[in-house]
Amino acid sequence: MRILLAEDDALLGDGLRAGLRQRGFQVDWVRSGDLAEQELRAEPYAAAVLDLGLPGKDGMDVLAAIRRAGVTLPVLVLTARDAVPDRIRGLDSGADDYVVKPIDLDELAARLRALVRRAHGQTQECLAAQDIVLDPAARTVTKGGTPVALSGREFDLLQTFLLNAGRVLTRDQLEQHLYSWGQEVDSNAVEVHVHNLRRKLGPTLIHTVRGVGYMLAKDGAA
């Protein structure tokens, strides 16, 4: 899943980006509040990690501004401000979670996965459809209990479909979920990944909606 990281400390930001990428996230990194607000208003991120002490525009002001603008994505506030009033203000301004530095990367990844699940109405750690089960933490997929080997991009695409079950997604939307800045996208990349998922997981899992895009039907739906 694609997230935005807003952190002005170069060393910390680089470490967070690298660590989250190792844990399966596509990470776009900005270093100012103005850029963070601009990106969050414009791009369909799954979640954001927002430092409060950003130059240009304070992270708290960024958070309040995007909420006023109707941006509903989950926001995890990452900050050195550990006073209770600061935490209360952050949550009241629209933060979904609040973590004080320093933080363990595994915990940060787990918190982000939980935020994204809840934002999509998912209560269980694993995502499932038909006899397919995807474990976001372990990054494993099984079909009828048997492990299925997927590439990283195939895994991310399947996770996107499962989180958005019953919703038609266009190719552009899928590309935005799968690729972060600077990653080259082949013109038929989504089609190739969908083909591979159908081959490995069955032809009825992902439906083509002609002229629009693709959809993974909710269990019990045609």
TrEMBL record:
DNA-binding region (UniProt annotation): 124-218
Keywords annotated in UniProt: Cytoplasm, DNA-binding, Phosphoprotein, Transcription, Transcription regulation, Two-component regulatory system
Sequence ranges assigned to domain Response regulatory in this UniProt record: 2-116
A Pfam family per the record: Trans_reg_C
Post-translational modification 4-aspartylphosphate, affected residues: D51
Keyword Calcium appears in the UniProt entry: no
PROSITE patterns linked to this entry: OMPR_PHOB, RESPONSE_REGULATORY
Domain OmpR/PhoB-type: 124-218
Compartment annotation: Cytoplasm
Matching PANTHER family: REGULATOR OF RPOS (PTHR48111), TRANSCRIPTIONAL REGULATORY PROTEIN QSEB (PTHR48111:SF35)
Name of this chain's protein: Response regulator transcription factor
Taxonomic path: Bacteria, Pseudomonadati, Pseudomonadota, Betaproteobacteria, Burkholderiales
